[in-house]
Amino acid sequence: ATSYVGFDSITQQIEHKLLKRGFQFNVIVVGQTGLGKSTLINTIFASHLIDSKGRREASEPVRQTTEIQTVSHVITENGVRLRLNIVDTPGYGDQVNNENCWDPIIKYIKDQHSAYLRKELTAMRDRYIQDTRIHCCLYFINPTGHSLRPIDVIVMKKLSEVVNVVPVIAKADSLTLEERESFKQKIRGELFHHSIRLYPFDTDEYDEEEVQLNESIRNMIPFAVVGSEREVNVGGKAVRARKNRWGVVNVEDETHCEFVSLRNFLTRTHLQDLIETTAQIHYEAFRSKQLLALKE
Ligand code: GDP
Ligand code: MG
């Protein structure tokens, strides 16, 4: 006779364990100086993901990012704890000679893989390894409206070999909606032409729904984003926005820019897949290469 043994509770057991442990999500921002990387980080943290404790005052002097540094917040929603780490990088590609200027960033990403592997290989390894591997790289593209710079092509290609790369059009408020759309198409064409394989990848593990979701992301990329550290009064409500010669650009208004789409992509729809893809594709490639080298 068949009898109920209760193993279907395994999903609750897993959930309980995961909830206790919490999640860690690591994002890096990369691109030329002045494209609004640091601003976007602050916008993400200040937008209603978090009530903005660490908000900067508008009078603070403009800071320059001179080294790789991590901004970190713990967010809790309905008992789920997420540690969101965003790694800010100094701009590169500002020099006359830009050769190998991306090396420190690639090295940083590989160092995290290396640290993880070392912990994995330790005999008395911790039950749970702190994960500093980068799950997503936001690559900032200059809003020229024309085309990618040669250095963008080189760097995105290099990055895409070690991390999930998601391109964004920086300071999208400097382009009209029409300009943005044609710029996006141009960029998608160039990415294809240069065989740059960006996230999301196709695997046969995805179900119909996931396949469609990924298709919609591919059609939207690069996300045209606007960041702001200030609040502007719009109809009696304080919103994150920028004032420009055409009026007020509300960062969180989906008819103004794709900041909300990017945030949803990162936190609502692809968080788990970005983490999983990092482990299964990027980290695994690094790991097997290292282990092979050890054997020789
Ligand atoms: P980073 O060097 O890439 O970190 O750039 P910052 O975040 O320091 O920003 C450089 C300048 O661009 C600052 O004056 C920002 O106020 C401005 N900025 C940032 N984001 C935007 C944006 O979305 N639109 C516009 N027009 N300006 C922005
Ligand atoms: Mg900066």
UniProtKB/TrEMBL annotation:
Transmembrane segments: none annotated. GO terms for molecular function: GTP binding. One of its GO terms (cellular component) is cleavage apparatus septin structure. GO terms for biological process: cell division; septin ring assembly; sporulation. CDD domains: CDC_Septin. The keyword Nucleotide-binding applies. It holds the Pfam family Septin. InterPro entries: G_SEPTIN_dom, P-loop_NTPase, Septin. Keywords: Cell cycle, Cell division, GTP-binding, Nucleotide-binding. It comes from the Eukaryota. PANTHER family: SEPTIN. Belongs to the TRAFAC class TrmE-Era-EngA-EngB-Septin-like GTPase superfamily. Septin GTPase family. This is Septin ring protein. It comes from Lactarius akahatsu. The lineage of its organism: Eukaryota, Fungi, Dikarya, Basidiomycota, Agaricomycotina.
